[in-house]
Structures are given as C-alpha cells and as structure tokens.
Amino acid sequence: MKYCAIATDYDGTLATDGVVDAATVATLKRYQAAGGKLIMDTGRELSDLQQAFPELDLFDAVVVENGAVVYHPASGDIQCLGDPMPETFIATLKAKGVSPINPGRRIVSTWQPHGQTVQETIEELGLKARIIMNKKAVMVLPAGITKATGLEVALTKLNLRSENVAGIGDAENDFDLLRSCGLGVAVANALPTVKEMADCVVKQPRGEGVTELIEKILDNSF
After folding, report:
1. 58: which of 37, 42, 124, 200 is 20 to 30 A away, CA to CA?
2. What angle do helix axes 115-125 and 87-95 make, rounded to 10 degrees?
3. CA dist., res. 1 & res. 213, Å (int)
4. How far, in Å, CA of 158 to CA of 137, rounded?
5. pLDDT tens, 72-124?
6. Order of strands across the sheet with 5-8?
7. What does the alpha-carbon distance between residue 18 and residue 171 come to, in Å, rounded to a whole number?
C-alpha cells in the first residue's frame, strides 16, 4: 500500500453538515484494519470536534485549530504550536464590534465580513499572526502555522513520511495540507481553486469522496 496514511479535513470533506455517516466510519475502520494510519486535520477546536464526532479516537493523530494544536488520542497528549493571541487582540476586536469571536488554545476565529477589520487590527497591534480563510470563516493563527505544520508534528510522532500520506480536503485552508502530502486530493464538492491545485479530484463529494479515495488506495489504483 503506497499511501499508508490518510490526512483528512473534517467539515465539507469527511463530514456532511458536521456529521460523519456510518458508511464512512466503516470505511475508515477497514482502511485502518489493512494497516493504514488515520490523521484528522481540521480548523475546528478539539472540544468542538469531540462533541461532533464521537469516534474521534479512531484516529491515530488529530490536528486541530488549523495546525496549531495536535492531539494524540492514544496517550491523551496535546501539543500546542506557536504563541497564543494576546488578550488585547480579542479586546480590540470586541471594541470594534467584531462578533462572534471564538478563541481557542491558539486560534482566534470569526466570520466574514470582519476579515478586513481583523487584518487591520493585526497590523495595528504589530502581531506576528496571519489570517487563513476557510470559505466564510476568518481564522487568525500564529505566523507560520498551517495545517501542514501540525501534520508534520503528527507524522513525526507516528514515524511516517509525508510522501506516503494522501491528504484530502475541500477549502482554501487545505492548500498547505494537500501540498505537503505525497498525494493531494480534492473531494467533488471542493472549491474550484482547491481542485485546480490538487493532484487529483475524486468523483464523489464529502464522506463518499473519502471512501472513494480509500478504496482506490486499497486496490492499489493510487
């Protein structure tokens, strides 16, 4: 099996409207039974993801907050990358009327149309941070942190190499994930820009697309 690990986004890729169906979970288990490793790589916060997806411990590593936090289900260990956003940043955003604001361990997120205000605030405060878009979501992360940096930490822990990983996603924040993997895959419902930069596009959307990828890997089509 050339691709002995799969790194998948959650919303819009593995999940439909925040839920992973039973058929997709069964396919994940079949891949794992064949010796494959499973890695989640999402913009969600860990507590939110655990509530949305009770089978999370099926995964060998879970990268959350768009690469800033790595959770290892087997040990329960949590690794944080970069520095947290200062309280002054959140306070300034609130004073400018930005709402909602969702702070995580490292990420601070909101929604459009607040992107320009968030960028201006980062510049005003001289923060070493960057905005990463996820469709209408506006995510602020420490400079240099992407889904790829979190994936690298997970792969090191699992003794895996990126060339043996198939990454699959659907949105702008998946660019770095797909580029960092040996095979970058877009689901059928992915944004056009993601399809353009991916190595291949599966025929099916969301969880069915992840299932299609796994089946191709297991029968050595990839």
Report:
1. 200
2. 130
3. 13
4. 30
5. 999 999 999 999 999 999 999 999 999 999 999 999 999 999 999 999 999 99
6. 77-80, 69-72, 61-64, 37-41, 5-8, 165-169, 183-186, 200-201
7. 15
CB-based contacts of 5, cutoff 8 Å, min separation 6: 36, 37, 38, 39, 60, 155, 158, 160, 164, 165, 166
Q: Are 69 and 139 in contact (CB under 8 A)?
A: no
> What one-letter code names the amino acid at 185?
V
Q: Classify strands 69-72 and 61-64 as parallel, antiparallel or unpaired.
A: antiparallel
Q: Which residue has the tokens 């879970």?
A: 62
Cβ atoms of residues 182 and 3 within 8 Å: yes
151, HSE (Cβ side, Cα atoms, 13 Å) = 33
Cα radius of gyration rounded to whole Å, the chain: 17
> How does pLDDT run across 12-69, given as a tens digit for each residue?
999 999 999 999 999 999 999 999 999 999 999 999 999 999 999 999 999 999 999 9
